[in-house]
Design goal:
Number of strands: 2
Number of helices: 2
CATH superfamily: Vaccinia Virus protein VP39
Order of helices and strands: HEHE
Largest sheet: 2 strands, parallel
Radius of gyration: 12 Å
Helix content: 25-40%
Structural class: alpha+beta
Number of domains: 1
CATH architecture: 3-Layer(aba) Sandwich
CATH class: Alpha Beta
Length: about 80
């Protein structure tokens, strides 16, 4: 997994050891952000990433200039 765009473009994201869920693919995140980029000014919004998992979506928002991002994940095995 990698960050697709923004200030941290190309940076690798490694899920924690033992992570069993399938993370959101780069292609799916790229499609999501292509849509959101046309709807919102990222520098003026706050984001809550519920069921954050690896945090890839949250990192992508941060990389694209969102000033406040909250990533929520209930299962300790999914985050470090």
């Amino acid at each position: 997994m990698r960050i697709i765009s923004g200030t941290h473009k190309g940076r690798q994201i490694h899920p924690p050891a033992g992570y069993k869920a399938r993370p959101t693919t780069d292609i799916a995140r790229e499609g999501l952000f292509n849509i959101l980029n046309n709807m919102f000014d990222f520098e003026e919004i706050k984001v809550a990433d519920l069921f954050g998992g690896t945090g890839a979506v949250s990192y992508e928002f941060c990389s694209r200039g969102v000033p406040e991002v909250y990533c929520i994940e209930m299962l300790p095995v999914n985050y470090r």
